[in-house]
Amino acid sequence: MTGAVAGLVLSLGLIAPSVPAVAATNYDIDSASSQQVVVNKHRALNPASYVPATLVRVQGERLRAEAADAYKQLAKAAKADGVNIMPISGYRSFSQQASLYDSYVRQYGQTTADTLAARPGHSEHQTGLAMDIGNASGTCALQACFASTPAGQWAAEHGPEHGFIIRYPAGAEDITGYTYEPWHLRYVGKALALDMQTRQMATLEQYFELEAAPDYLP
Ligand SMILES: [Zn+2]
Predict the structure, then answer these.
(1) What does the CA dihedral 97, 99, 104, 110 come to, rounded to 10 degrees?
(2) What spacing in Å lies between the alpha carbon of 155 and ligand 1's midpoint?
(3) What pLDDT sits at residue 154?
(4) Rounded Cα–Cα distance for residues 120 and 111 (Å)
(5) Is residue 52 part of a domain?
């Protein structure tokens, strides 16, 4: 197809409806330091020992600077709406993640542990872009019922305006590999978060047309 014809086809809208959500090339989903890096059970951080260059403290937790700024804006906007959101867990290093994962394995066995926490090198918390949030009251902390609390409802509705998505939505366990975590916010930047919301794409895997990652590869 010549450029002129391609341009005409595009301008007539003949291609647009079937065009993929967004070409993955628009974002860097591979580099550990990218705001849009996709980490899951099939996609380890590279290097697995990645440590963000700059971590900023937010109420006792740490996030990468840009995610920390966005988180503060989110918490402030929530407060203006009468909702008190508290950070529970932000950045975790490879070794911190290893300790957490190992404790789950000892407590529940590996199969269940893999649905609850990422193996080290596979955690969004290691990117410095993820924050587990809770209500200031502590209601339903790290439980599915968090979704119907004020903080859970507010974050689901307004998170994208501040660049955050609910990374492990309900009903997407076969894609993300994790049970519903309405408290786990992942910073991806406003443009991507809002576009996912507009297109009603619940997961990064669907948005970037990546394979589902329900389990670790053998
Ligand atoms: Zn989390």
Answers:
(1) 80
(2) 14
(3) 98
(4) 15
(5) yes
Residue 215 forms part of a structural domain: no
Higher-pLDDT residue of 17 and 33 is: 33
Å from CA of 183 to ligand 1 middle: 7
Confidence band (pLDDT; 50, 70, 90) for 116? confident
Ligand 1 geometric centre to CA of 130 (Å)? 6
Assess if residue 146 is contained within a domain: yes
Q: How far is the CA of 13 from the centre of ligand 1 (A)?
A: 40
Give the count of domains, the chain: 1
More confident residue, 151 or 179: 151
Distance 209 CA to ligand 1 centre (A): 23
CB-CB contact of 196 with 166 (8 Å): no
CATH code for the domain of 195: 3.30.1380.10
Within a domain: residue 7? no
Distance 55 CA to ligand 1 centre (A): 17
**What's the pLDDT at 119?**
97
List the domain range (segments joined by +) for residue 113.
25-207
pLDDT class of 24 with cuts at 50, 70, 90: low
Q: 32-64: buried (b, 16+ CB within 10 Å) or exposed (e) per residue? A: beebbbbbbbbbbbeeeebebeebbebeebbbb
Who's near 160: CB < 8 A, 6+ residues apart? 190, 193, 194, 196, 197
